[in-house]
C-alpha cells in the first residue's frame, strides 16, 4: 500500500471511529447498564425481576395502551398524510414551497408544547371542553398525529414525486376512472413508502413521552411514562429497567421493518431522478384539498391558536399580557429557580452546543456511509454502522436519560461527577437529534454521481481534494436544514432533559411542564405563555432553515 492510500484508510477509519466512540460511551454503555439493572440484585445476577414485572396486570395494561396509542396514531397519520403528500408534492400552486416548510414545523415542535396546546383546546376552559375529550385516548391519538402527519407527507411525498406515472396514465387510457386508476396503479407502487412511513410513525408514537405525560396522566400511561413514574416517584430502578425490555422489543421490531422497507422501496418500482411537472389543481382534486385543509385547520392550527388565545387571558378571563410579564418576574411560590428568561438563555446555549456536536458527528457519519466500497465485507460493515447510528432514533429519550444517570458518575476515570453539571444535557440532546441530521445529509451525498469522484481521481486529485471540491460543496446544500433540525429538536427535547436538569439550571421545556402542573395561582397561564414562546422560537428556527436550504430531502 502506498503512502497516500495508507493515509486515506487512516482518515476514513478515524472518521468512523470518532462517532462510534461517542455512541459507545454516551449511548450504548448507559443503555446496556440500564438493561443490566433488571438482572442484578445486591450485586448478583438475578433474573427473577423479569417474571415479577411481567406478571403484574398493570404491566400488560401499559404495554397494551402503548400499542393501541401507536397503532391508532399510525392509522390516523396515514389517512391524513396521504392527502397532504398529494397536495404538496403532486400539485403545483403558488406558495407550495412555503407550505411545505410550514408542514415541517409540527414535526419539530416540542412535545410539551403540543401537549399543552391540546390541553388548552380540550381541557377545562378550552373552546372544545364540552366534548369531554380531556384525558382520553382520542386526544392522545390526535396529538400524536399532529406530529406524524408530517412524517407521512414527507416520506411518501418525496417518493411519490419521483414515481413513474406511466402505469397510472395507461390505466386512464384504458378507461379507468381517476380513483380506480390511482387504486390499481399508483397505490400499489406507493405501498413500500407508505409501509416505511407507517413503521416510523409507529416507532415515534410508541416512544412518545411529553404528549402522554401531559394528556394521559397515569390512567393512559404508555411504557415511556411508566418507566419515568417508576424511576422518579417510586425509585424502583429494577422494575423500570425490566419494563424497558418491552420497549426495546417494540422499538427493535419497528426499526427492522422500517430499514427493510426503506431499502426495498425504491427497488420495487421505477423512479425518475427528475420529477414530472406537477399539475395545477382541478375540480377532481377538490375532495383531497378539503381533507388537507381540514387537517391543517383542525389538527394543526386549532390547538396552536387555542394555546395562543388562552395565554393572552388572565385568571379573570380578561385579555392581558400578565402571563408573559410573569415569565420575567415569577412569584416566589412558583417552582422556578430564576426567571423564564434565564431558562430560555440556558436552553439556547445547550441547544447550540448540542447542534454543534450533532453536526460534527453527523457530517462524519454521512461521509462514511456515502462511500461505495467494492468489498462485500466493507459494505456489510457500513450497514452495521448505519444501524448503530440509527439506534438513538428508536431508544426512548427517557431510557437514555435514565441510563446516563446510572453511568456518568466519574466515567472513564474523569475526576468529577458529570451528573452534577449540565454537561450531559447537550450530549443527550445531540444523541436524540443525530439520526435526523444524518438522514438529512446522507441523501445528498448518495446522490453524487460516482463518476465525478472517479474523474477527479483520474485527473490527479487526492482523496482530500475530492472531498473538498465535490462532497463538501454538495453537503452544504442540506447543511442548513440539518442544522435547523438539530437545533430545534435539541431546544425542545424533554424526555432525557427532565432526568438530567439540576436545580437552578432548568431548560424551557422543563419549566413549561412544571408551571402547567403546579397549583399556584397564575402558574398555569404562565406555562401557556412559556409554551407559546418555545413554539415561536422553534418554528422560527425551522422556517429559517427551510428558507436557506437548497435540497430539503430527508430519508429515514
From TrEMBL:
Q: Does the keyword Phosphoprotein apply?
A: no
Record carries keyword Membrane = yes
Q: Which residues form the ABC transmembrane type-1 domain?
A: 63-256, 344-545
Q: Which CDD domains match?
A: TM_PBP2
| UniProt topology in membrane | Multi-pass membrane protein
UniProt main location, coarse? membrane
Query: Keywords assigned by UniProt?
Result: Cell inner membrane, Cell membrane, Membrane, Transmembrane, Transmembrane helix, Transport
SUPFAM superfamilies, per database record: MetI-like
Q: What is one Gene Ontology biological process annotated in the Swiss-Prot or TrEMBL record?
A: transmembrane transport
Spell out the subcellular localization from the entry.
Cell inner membrane
Residue ranges annotated as transmembrane are 7-29, 67-89, 101-122, 137-161, 182-215, 235-257, 286-309, 346-370, 382-406, 418-438, 478-501, 521-545
Q: Which InterPro entries match?
A: MetI-like (IPR000515), MetI-like_sf (IPR035906)
- Cellular component terms (Gene Ontology): plasma membrane
Could you identify this protein by its name? Iron ABC transporter permease
Q: Which organism is it from?
A: Leucobacter triazinivorans
Amino acid at each position: 500500500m502506498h503512502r497516500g492510500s495508507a493515509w486515506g484508510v487512516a482518515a476514513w477509519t478515524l472518521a468512523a471511529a470518532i462517532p462510534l466512540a461517542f455512541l459507545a460511551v454516551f449511548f450504548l454503555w448507559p443503555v446496556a447498564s440500564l438493561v443490566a439493572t433488571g438482572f442484578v440484585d445486591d450485586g448478583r445476577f438475578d433474573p427473577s425481576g423479569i417474571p415479577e414485572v411481567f406478571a403484574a396486570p398493570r404491566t400488560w395494561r401499559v404495554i397494551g395502551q402503548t400499542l393501541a396509542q401507536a397503532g391508532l396514531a399510525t392509522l390516523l397519520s396515514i389517512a391524513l398524510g396521504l392527502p397532504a403528500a398529494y397536495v404538496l408534492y403532486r400539485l403545483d400552486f403558488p406558495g407550495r414551497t412555503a407550505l411545505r416548510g410550514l408542514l415541517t414545523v409540527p414535526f419539530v415542535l416540542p412535545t410539551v408544547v403540543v401537549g399543552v396546546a391540546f390541553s388548552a383546546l380540550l381541557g377545562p376552559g378550552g373552546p372544545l371542553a364540552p366534548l369531554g375529550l380531556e384525558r382520553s385516548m382520542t386526544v392522545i391519538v390526535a396529538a400524536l398525529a399532529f406530529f406524524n402527519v408530517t412524517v407521512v407527507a414527507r416520506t411518501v411525498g418525496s417518493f411519490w414525486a419521483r414515481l413513474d406515472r406511466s402505469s397510472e396514465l395507461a390505466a386512464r387510457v384504458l378507461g379507468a376512472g381517476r380513483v380506480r386508476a390511482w387504486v390499481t396503479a399508483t397505490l400499489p407502487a406507493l405501498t413500500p413508502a407508505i409501509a416505511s412511513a407507517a413503521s416510523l410513525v409507529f416507532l415515534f408514537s410508541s416512544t412518545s413521552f411529553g404528549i402522554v405525560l401531559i394528556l394521559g396522566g397515569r390512567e393512559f400511561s404508555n411504557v415511556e411514562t411508566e418507566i419515568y413514574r417508576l424511576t422518579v416517584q417510586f425509585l424502583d430502578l429494577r422494575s423500570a429497567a425490566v419494563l424497558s425490555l418491552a420497549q426495546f422489543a417494540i422499538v427493535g421490531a419497528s426499526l427492522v421493518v422500517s430499514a427493510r422497507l426503506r431499502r426495498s422501496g425504491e427497488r420495487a418500482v421505477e423512479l425518475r431522478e427528475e420529477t414530472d411537472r406537477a399539475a395545477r389543481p382541478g375540480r377532481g382534486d377538490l375532495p383531497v384539498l378539503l381533507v388537507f385543509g381540514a387537517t391543517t385547520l383542525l389538527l394543526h392550527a386549532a390547538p396552536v391558536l387555542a394555546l395562543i388565545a388562552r395565554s393572552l387571558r388572565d385568571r379573570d378571563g380578561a385579555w392581558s399580557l400578565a402571563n408573559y410579564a410573569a415569565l420575567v418576574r415569577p412569584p416566589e411560590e412558583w417552582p422556578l429557580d430564576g426567571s423564564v428568561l434565564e431558562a430560555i438563555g440556558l436552553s439556547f446555549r445547550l441547544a447550540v452546543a448540542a447542534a454543534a456536536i450533532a453536526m460534527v458527528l453527523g457530517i462524519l457519519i454521512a461521509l462514511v456511509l456515502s462511500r461505495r466500497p467494492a468489498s462485500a465485507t466493507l459494505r456489510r460493515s457500513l450497514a452495521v454502522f448505519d444501524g448503530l447510528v440509527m439506534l438513538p432514533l428508536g431508544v426512548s429519550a427517557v431510557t437514555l436519560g435514565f441510563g446516563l444517570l446510572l453511568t456518568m458518575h466519574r466515567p472513564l476515570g474523569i475526576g468529577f461527577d458529570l451528573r452534577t453539571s449540565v454537561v450531559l444535557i447537550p450530549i443527550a440532546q445531540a444523541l436524540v437529534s443525530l439520526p435526523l441530521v444524518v438522514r438529512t445529509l446522507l441523501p445528498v451525498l448518495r446522490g453524487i454521481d460516482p463518476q465525478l469522484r472517479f474523474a477527479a481521481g483520474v485527473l490527479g486529485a487526492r482523496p482530500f481534494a475530492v472531498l473538498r471540491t465535490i462532497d463538501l460543496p454538495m453537503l452544504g446544500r442540506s447543511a442548513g436544514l440539518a442544522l435547523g433540525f438539530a437545533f430545534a429538536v435539541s431546544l425542545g427535547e424533554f424526555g432525557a432533559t427532565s432526568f438530567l436538569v439540576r436545580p437552578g439550571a432548568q431548560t424551557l421545556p422543563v419549566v413549561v411542564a412544571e408551571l402547567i402542573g403546579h397549583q399556584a395561582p397564575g402558574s398555569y397561564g404562565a406555562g401557556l405563555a412559556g409554551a407559546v414562546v418555545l413554539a415561536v422560537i422553534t418554528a422560527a428556527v425551522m422556517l429559517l432553515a427551510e428558507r436557506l436550504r437548497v435540497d430539503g430531502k430527508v430519508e429515514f
